[in-house]
Amino acid sequence: MNSIANIWNHPKTSAAGLLIAIVTIAGALSQQGITLGTTGTGTVITLVSGIATALLGLLAKDPGGASSSTGSTAKLGAWALITLLLPLPFIGGCSGTTVAQNIVNWTPALQSAVATVDSTGALLAPADAPIFAAATAGFDAASNLLVTQAKAYLANPSASVLAQMQAQIVTLQQQVNTALLQAAKITDPSSQKHALTAVQAVAVVVSAILALVQSVSSKAQVAQMAAQSTIKLAEVRPFLDEAGAARMVATHYGEPIELARVEVARAEAAEMQAGF
């Protein structure tokens, strides 16, 4: 009921989210060669995508209302349109060096998030702490190796180092996904909250780095990475904190939260499309 009420109370925000989803799905279907038939000189998919983008443009117009709610939804529409036209900051680097620098820039956040995971066990109930420790035991070694590889790739963006990073980011992603599933099984409400919050922070950074690695990988390489990803995003999505992810991305890139929300949604959709 709360979700229905939220849609009713914030129609423009809900409409913007729906249109973004339509454009994202249409783009995914188009890349897979799915057209749903032709219309005029184009396809049904391109027509639907074009209409959705045009409607986002209308939402982006500030109606000039004085209320903060109206201004907020208008801003969301504007950021939605902008982010559809511009590449995501964490997958927008064209060169290996640019992407490598972005990955290195994320590593302090990764190390901080992992350090928080290490200290979270003390906040859990005695019966839950060992379960959490076992689920996150590989975080330190996997994240440290990824940081080393990222710095090596920045110094020399070679195919061999990229291959190492491709394998390592999937390894860490799988460890994070496993930990999310294990944390969700904790029955003590307080322990579960602490455990999920800690792992969710790591998940945000890992997702951003995965997107960066994807951006400098071939389709065949991405397919190979996705094949190694046995616990898919769809399985852990219910346990992800999208609001928290948007805050982390907004802080990291120094951008408005509205834009970060849309970027997180686009990155998530791209990873699911790739098979992660």
Structural summary, described in words:
The chain is mainly alpha-helical. It folds into two domains: 2-85; 96-274. It is built from 13 helices and two strands, in the order H-H-E-E-H-H-H-H-H-H-H-H-H-H-H. It has helices spanning 2-9, 11-31, 44-59, 68-85, 96-120, 129-135, 139-155, 159-184, 189-215, 219-228, 233-236, 242-253, 257-274, and strands spanning 38-39, 42-43. Strands 1-2 form a two-stranded antiparallel ribbon. Strand 1 and strand 2 form a beta hairpin. Helix 9 (189-215) crosses helix 13 (257-274). The longest helix is centred in the C-terminal third of the chain and has 27 residues, at 189-215. It is globular. The relative contact order is 0.12. The model is unreliable at 60-70 and 81-86 (pLDDT under 50).
Keywords:
276 residues; mainly alpha; two-stranded antiparallel sheet; 13 helices; globular
Topology at a glance:
Layout: H1 2-9, H2 11-31, E1 38-39, E2 42-43, H3 44-59, H4 68-85, H5 96-120, H6 129-135, H7 139-155, H8 159-184, H9 189-215, H10 219-228, H11 233-236, H12 242-253, H13 257-274
